[in-house]
């Protein structure tokens, strides 16, 4: 039983990089099944090249991914 | 941990000192201090000087977990601290002389983060990660772990010294990264514990410092750099920059290390350390670059130069270590000192 107050969710769009997610958010796959979250703060891929999607693996740097501000 | 075998006059003098309890202030003869000072100052290249780097590592180890049979009181003995300073001075001078000075950045969060990402951008040249991924044999892979073990069996500790020296945004960022490094409350998930498992999986001893006598000066220097920056408050900018650069050059290489150990037939428990770092450090590099380094730059704009210098020094020493490994392996020799 989790009695601590809910943590507000923040999603930080890192320039040229992933979405950094903090707070109480549940990650689910296309079937609605939960995806295990192994750390408090997670980075979600937005370049499409990560080998561990939906998480970021730093591949955006290798492919020169650029976001517009 | 046992005291390492001395590699020259500095280490021999220190060992002579540490095997007895401290005698109070001014326990060391002026003659000994003079001998140390001249030996340290005479080093032609402090970054690759075995005696200087191993002796400095021994002195720093007193601040971490110490040695069997060495009185804990030596940590704050004024003579020992004077000796340490005599070694740090040529070490710092060599860093100032050899590390390329990075282009300046504005003391703003995004400007500093983007300067750090530019400095650490993946290059096309040969790398230890690519070699381990494609070509390393079992012996070379073990050597790689032995080099890594000096830092990684105490992963995160040198940067933790910075926590009480920071406040606000950069402090929260450092603690956020370190909490993850230390397993988020689960000791078996500590990165040092995951690496210990990797060492055991490769048939190596996972006890901290077990292999120090086999490591060349340059590997020891890479850890001493972190202790130098971590233990001195005046270097708080550099330790922040060091961590950012370290995290920014971790995710992609760790994927290759994991591939290499899988190619050599190691199981998931042995490669977990590398696989964990692919995901973890993709998070850490954002926090360390933007909130730790960038946040510190906004609080203390005069530290921008040190932040970038710390990152440049991290990359410079990592390159020296990498070059040492690749040079040895390309000529079919061991990268370790003989046992």
What's the CATH topology label of the largest domain in chain B? Heme Oxygenase, Chain A
- The second-level CATH architecture of chain A is 3-Layer(aba) Sandwich
Q: Biggest interface and its residues per chain?
A: A-B, 22 and 24 residues
Please indicate the count of domains of chain B: 2
Regions with little confidence, pLDDT below 50 for 5+ residues of chain B: none
Report the strand count of chain A.
Answer: 3
Number of helices of chain B: 15
Q: Let me know the largest β-sheet of chain A.
A: 3 strands, antiparallel
The geometry of chain A reads as: globular
Largest sheet of chain B: none
Structural class of chain B: mainly alpha
CATH class of chain A: Alpha Beta
Q: Gyration radius of chain A, to the nearest Å?
A: 14 Å
Strand proportion of chain B, as a percent range, falls in under 5%
Percent helix of chain A, as a range, is under 10%
Contiguous runs where pLDDT drops below 50 for at least 5 residues of chain A:
none
- CA radius of gyration of chain B: 20 Å
Oligomeric state as shown: heterodimer
What does this structure look like?
The complex is a heterodimer of chains A (69) and B (339). Chain A has one helix spanning 59-63; strands spanning 10-13, 19-22, 42-44. With 69 residues, chain A is mainly β. Chain A has a three-stranded antiparallel sheet, with no helix packed on it. Chain B has 339 residues and is mainly α. Chain B is 64% helix and 0% strand. The model of chain B has no long low-confidence stretch (mean pLDDT 95). At the A-B interface, helix 1 of A face helix 5, helix 9, helix 13 and helix 14 of B.
